[in-house]
Amino acid sequence: MPGHHPTRSRRTTERKGDVRERAILDTCEALLAQKGYDAMTVGDIAQGAGITRGALYFYFGSKQEVVTALVARTVEHLWERSRATAQTDEPRQAIAAAMRRTVELWNEHGLVMRTAIDLSLTVPEIGELWSRTADLFITAITAVLERAGIPAGDEPEQASAMARALCWMIERTFYHASQESRESLRKASSTCEHIWLVSAGLTA
Predict the structure, then answer these.
(1) SS3 state of residue 36
(2) Cα of 32 vs its chain's centroid, Å
(3) pLDDT at 86
(4) 114, 179 in Cβ contact below 8 A?
(5) What is the arithmetic mean of pLDDT over 15-29?
(6) Interatomic CA distance for residues 28 and 22, integer angstroms
(7) Which of 137, 67, 68 lies closest to 101, judged by CA?
């Protein structure tokens, strides 16, 4: 029957599409390590994913779009794991869990994170994504600070302003430490956690 085939083939295409998209993003992450962003090409990504350049352009319009999608996939994992913790856990536990998950993400995908930071100033799509991601984490950090008793608001000593500074401090600290070693990253995380606890008045 004519009515049945389009639906069935569309579902199959979507499934195949998910697999292809994952292959493209996985290849892009591998190529970032092998060649770096500037040297890798759309052709390299397509070849590594086992598809033609034309097929790749069906999913992504440019190299920037592939990297943007890779960054989005990477930070989404962290955000999904962190959101519930920020909203429900006791502040000390929420801070410890947030830092532990951030270390895991940077250990697994530090190169993607550093590439996102490097490109955020020059590639508008990545800059926008990175700002939106930071805003999500600033909101989560704000909620933890407020639950710890820090007054709400944007004044320097209030939760939103403190959360913004903490978010960018953690980003920059992890950016540098992740280039050194896992041990450096662990120590940097402990320092950031300590500063966050002090800021929240939770060290007594």
Answers:
(1) coil
(2) 16
(3) 67
(4) yes
(5) 87
(6) 10
(7) 137
